[in-house]
Design a protein that fits this description.
With 117 residues, this protein is an alpha+beta fold. The longest helix is centred in the last third of the chain and has 14 residues.
């Protein structure tokens, strides 16, 4: 089981209240457990918080918006992805624009990735 560090639950609660609009849209669908897969939102994992996490599939779904492009963010994301991979978790990064433009296609892609397990 992937668990968070100290203060993880409190931090996760705060982050759930501050989700971006694309994250809210995706959550409204993932909470319906598409394909029978259960997801958690803002799941604490070590020093990180995962936008969405399916423990059974060991899959993290990250909605990447504008904040993931500037400065050292790509390197930080790569370190985080490597840490998760070291714990057996695959990371699927989904651009926020795709969630806004074609949510059904994003959901199909997530299910396709899980089916490849």
């Amino acid at each position: 089981e992937l668990k968070g560090g100290p203060g993880g639950k409190r931090g996760a609660r705060k982050r759930r209240r501050e989700m971006s609009f694309p994250e809210v849209l995706l959550w409204q669908e993932l909470r319906k457990e598409p394909g029978g897969w259960y997801y958690r939102r803002e799941h604490p994992a070590g020093p990180y918080f995962l936008d969405f996490y399916c423990a059974k599939a060991k899959l993290c779904v990250e909605v990447d918006g504008e904040a993931h492009a500037p400065g050292d963010r790509p390197e930080r994301d790569a370190r985080r992805d490597a840490w998760l991979a070291g714990h057996g978790v695959r990371v699927l990064r989904v651009p926020a624009a795709e969630v806004l433009c074609d949510l059904d296609a994003v959901l199909r892609h997530i299910l396709d990735v899980i089916a490849g397990t």
